[in-house]
């Protein structure tokens, strides 16, 4: 397990090495073409050093990589974007966002799919403004109002990935505790449950509820997120949140374990149709 930046550097380096090999170039030849020392190419490919987005763009041009989605993804892993500015919108909040959160948002903005187990709160991509404010205030006691406002803005801005072209595909399993915990009070929670019902019918969103009656299940160990990417499964990653940081798991055996865990959760949870009725029923009694 490692922090996000180290994982991202190595994933980026691995992909660049594959692209160089496909282009029929040795690391020495690639270095000569871009005007670098061979050791710089090696450091980038092993993830032992960071790399600027401009350098990644130069390598992609040298390797004749024209796929716009792949270029955008690799530039995002380097901390850059395609120049539109949308990929880096969170940079405006650098003063209030910890590096691990910025890293999470960057991955989220480029992922094609997100599978998540939530055991305590509604997924950030589906939170209402009032719910997001209540959760953030509880998680960051004593936070100044301006910073609280900024964090809520970030939470809501992240939701744009569900309206993208193509949108992020969100597949979430929600423990019933998520629906029962009265975050922000009855009115806030009533609107949040209504929002979940609205989201549940969107084609890019699939919600399943794990009812209390299901008993103990593999998800009792805690929430997690699996990001997947349409360009290559080698970039898929599991994210585990902790109080002061996030951990990223990239090994194939770790990914397989969490994918299997998520599949098991889906089997034991209610179906999307049953879950929508279940959420609506809780909302009606709220």
Automatic annotation (TrEMBL):
One of its GO terms (molecular function) is DNA binding. It holds the Pfam family HTH_31. CDD domains: HTH_XRE. Residues 16-70 form the HTH cro/C1-type domain. InterPro entries: Cro/C1-type_HTH (IPR001387), DUF5753 (IPR043917), Lambda_DNA-bd_dom_sf (IPR010982). This is Helix-turn-helix domain-containing protein.
């Amino acid at each position: 397990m490692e922090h996000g930046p180290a994982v991202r550097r190595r994933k980026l380096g691995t992909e660049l090495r594959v692209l160089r090999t496909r282009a029929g170039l040795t690391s020495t030849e690639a270095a000569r073409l871009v005007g670098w020392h061979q050791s710089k190419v090696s450091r980038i490919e092993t993830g032992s050093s960071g790399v600027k987005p401009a350098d990644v763009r130069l390598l992609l041009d040298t390797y004749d990589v024209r796929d716009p989605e792949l270029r955008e993804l690799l530039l995002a892993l380097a901390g850059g974007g395609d120049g539109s500015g949308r990929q880096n919108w969170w940079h405006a909040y650098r003063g209030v966002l910890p590096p691990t959160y910025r890293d999470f948002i960057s991955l989220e903005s480029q992922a094609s799919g997100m599978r998540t187990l939530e055991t305590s709160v509604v997924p950030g991509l589906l939170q209402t403004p009032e719910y997001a404010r209540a959760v953030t205030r509880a998680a960051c006691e004593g936070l100044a109002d301006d910073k609280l406002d900024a964090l809520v803005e970030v939470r809501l801005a992240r939701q744009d990935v569900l309206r993208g072209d193509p949108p992020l595909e969100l597949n979430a399993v929600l423990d019933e505790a998520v629906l029962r915990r009265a975050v922000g009070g009855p009115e806030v929670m009533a609107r949040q449950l209504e929002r979940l019902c609205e989201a549940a019918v969107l084609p890019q969103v699939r919600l399943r509820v794990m009812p209390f009656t299901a008993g103990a299940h593999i998800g009792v160990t805690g929430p997690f997120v699996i990001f997947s990417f349409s360009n290559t499964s080698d970039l898929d990653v599991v994210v585990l949140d902790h109080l002061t940081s996030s951990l990223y798991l990239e090994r194939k055996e770790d990914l397989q374990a969490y994918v299997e865990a998520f599949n098991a959760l889906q089997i034991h949870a209610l179906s999307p149709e049953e879950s929508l009725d279940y959420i609506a029923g809780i909302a009606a009694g709220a």
